[in-house]
Amino acid sequence: MVAVFVSYTGAIMSHSQICCLVHVVFATAERRPCIRDEFRERLHRYVGGIARELGTPALAVGGTRDHIHLLLSLPRTLSVAKAVQLLKASSSKWIHENFPRTQGFAWQEGYGAFSIGVSQREVTVRYIERQEEHHRRYSFAEEMKKFLDVHGIEE
């Protein structure tokens, strides 16, 4: 048997590396169904653009009339709380400026953020893309209860 030794210089880890995928969900205030069909797709694209500008690419954005889902790839420099705060504030402002008939639009205060492994990336993307179909069978409350249960979070 011949032993082979490989020299490790540490060059691979000269910079911080991170892979932090987070499934974020937040709802409209009082879960009012005010994300209208006429601008929902544009809202999703806008939120994706905000996320990209923040350096936290949105791998998927979807939702229904009363909530939104995002799969974010968080950088090492941005917390979940700060990302959600900026996404909600910017998107709310955009809605008010571009769709004045939605004067009462607001996001609810809270949000859900659930870490996912790389192996669940594509499953989560498909789930987010199929929100309309999903909510024909399950309510938002049922969906959130399941997320909390799966992640061991007590209400």
What is this structure's SSE topology?
Elements: E1 20-27, H1 37-54, E2 58-63, E3 67-74, H2 80-98, E4 112-116, H3 121-129, H4 131-134, H5 140-150
Antiparallel strand pairs: 1-3, 1-4, 2-3
Helix pairs in contact: 1-2
Task: Please give a quick description of this structure.
The protein is of the alpha+beta class. It has helices at residues 37-54, 80-98, 121-129, 131-134, 140-150, and strands at 20-27, 58-63, 67-74, 112-116. It is globular.
Question: Could you explain the architecture of this structure?
Answer:
By secondary structure, the chain is α+β, with helices and mostly antiparallel strands. It has a 4-stranded antiparallel beta sheet with strand order 2-3-1-4, with helices on both faces. The radius of gyration is 19 Å and the shape is globular.
Instruction: Give the percentage of residues in beta strands.
Output: 15-25%
Q: Whole-number radius of gyration? A: 19 Å
If helices are DSSP runs of H or I spanning 4 or more residues, what is the number of helices?
Answer: 5
Q: Strand order within the widest sheet?
A: 2-3-1-4
Structural class, please?
A: alpha+beta
Q: Separation of termini?
A: 58 Å
Summarize the amount of helix as a percent range: 25-40%
Largest sheet, in brief, is: 4 strands, antiparallel
Global mean pLDDT: 89
Order of helices and strands: EHEEHEHHH
Based on DSSP secondary structure assignment, what is the total number of beta strands?
4
